[in-house]
Amino acid sequence: MPWRADKRADGGPGAGTLACERARDRIDPYLEDELPRREAAEVESHLAGCADCRAELAIARRLREALRTGLPMLACPPEVTARVLAIAREEAAAPRRWRSWLGTGTLRPALAAAALLALLLAAPLLYRAVVQAPAEAPQLAAGEGEPVYSAAEIARAEEEARLVLGFVAAIGRDAGRAVQEEVLAGGIGRPARHLIEGLEAAGLGRDPSPPAPIETPRERRTP
Amino acid sequence: MPGDFQALVGEHQDRVYSLASYLLGDREEAADVTQEVLLRLWRNLGGLDESGGNVTAWLLRVTRNHCFDLLRKRRSQRSALGQPEEPDAVERAPDATAGPERLAASSDLGRHLRRAVQELGEPYRSVIILREVQEMKYREISETLEMPINTVKVNIHRGRRMLRERLKEVMGHALAC
User: Which of B19, B61, B17, B55 is CA-nearest to residue A80?
Assistant: First the structure.
C-alpha cells in the first residue's frame, strides 16, 4: 500500500495527506473506469481505510448525477431558426454579385483581402484624379484671376465623380463584407455595436457637427 | 436553399445555442450568436464540403470563439466605463426547458452548479460543457478544441474536481446527502 506511507504527521485521519491528494485526483477517472487496473486497486485500497475520501467519492457521484440533470441541452428559440432559414433563402435567391468574382474555397479569403488592400491604395488616387484634377489645371477667364468652367463641364465632372465613387463604394462594401466573413471569422459587427452603445450610454456619442460640404468649382458667370 | 442546410440547422441549432448560453449566461446574446454562427455555416457550406471537415466540431469551435470575443468586449467595455466585473452573469444563466431536468435545475444544487461552471476558468469550463451538456466523446472534444485527447481527459477531471471543491464550499455537507 504505497499511498498510506505518505500520510503527514500533522494531518487528521485521512484529510490533508499526500495519499488523499493522490486518491482525490483519481476519483473522477476511477468513476469513469479510466484508470489502469493497478491504480484502480490502489484507489480502492485507500478508500477502504479513509472515511474522508469515501465521502469525497460520494460527493463525486452526486456531482456526476447533478451534471447530467442540472446542465441540460437547451432548445434553440424557433424564431432564430426561422430568421436563419429566411435569410439563407433570400441569399440563395439573389446571390451576391461579387461572390462569384472572388472565387470559392480556400482562395476566397486571400482574394478578398487583396481586393480590400487594392481598394485602400487606389481610393485616394481615384478621388484625386476625378475630383481634384480639374482644379489643378484651371482655365482662366480673360481679366479674372479665378478658374471658371462651363455648366456642362461641371455637370460632367460631377457625374463622373458620382459614378466612380459609387463604384468604389460598391466594391468596398462587398470586399469588406467578404473579408469580415471569410478572413476575420465574424464577431465584428456586434461587438462594435456594443462598444458604440456603451460609449453613447456614457455620454460619449458621435460628434454632432455635420461634415463639411465638398467644394465644387464655381460656375462661369454669364455676361 | 439546399435542403441539406435546413437539415444541418435542425441537427445543430440546440448544440450551438446551448454552448453559447452556458458560456455567455445570457439567452438573448446566445440567440444572436446562434443566428450569426448558423449563417456563417450557410455562407461557408461550399468550403466545408470541399475540406470534408467535421461540421459539429467546426460549429462549436466557431461558437466558442465568437462567445470569447463577446466576453472580451464585454469586459473591456465595462472596464472602460469603470463598471465592476459582472457579478450577475450567473444569475442570468439558463434554466432547463421542461420536465424533470427543470426541477433538478431549479434546485439549489442545479443553481450552484451552473454558477460554479461559469466561474471555472478556461479550458475547464469549455471541456465540462462539451462533455456534460453536449455529451461529446473525448475524441470529439479533442477535435472541437484542437487539443490532444489526453489533455482533454486531464482537463475534464481537473474541472470536475474544481467543481467539487467549489460546491463543497457553498453547500457544505448538503452536497453529500
Answer: B17
